[in-house]
Amino acid sequence: MTRIVAGIAKGRVLKVPPKGTRPTSERVREALFSRLEHMGMLEGAHVLDLYAGT
After folding, report:
1. What pTM was computed for the model?
2. Which of 10, 16, 32, 46 has the most Cβ atoms closer than 10 angstroms to its Cβ?
3. DSSP 1-54
4. Chain centroid, CA 39 distance in Å
5. 2-28 pLDDT, tens digit each
6. Is the pLDDT reported for residue 33 higher than 80?
7. Closest Cα to residue 12, out of 54, 40, 50, 44?
């Protein structure tokens, strides 16, 4: 199970294949975007995570 953790779709669950994928953990994604936000790189940005593993 992969869950969207931010934005207008926050909390939605995405269906993923039962085998063959290794989605980046929620904790790692949150840490990455928290750091980018702290650096001021996300203000006004639109982000598409193309490596979500789904």
Report:
1. 0.48
2. 16
3. -EE--SSTTTT-EE---SSS--PPPHHHHHHHHHHHHHTT--TT-----TTS--
4. 18
5. 778 777 888 998 887 888 777 677 788
6. yes
7. 54
- Tokens, residue 10: 């926050």
Cα distances (Å, whole numbers) of residue 20 to 7, 16, 43: 27, 10, 35
CA distances from 17 to 5, 13, 14, 21, 54 (A): 19, 13, 10, 7, 7
Alpha-carbon span 34 to 19, nearest angstrom: 29
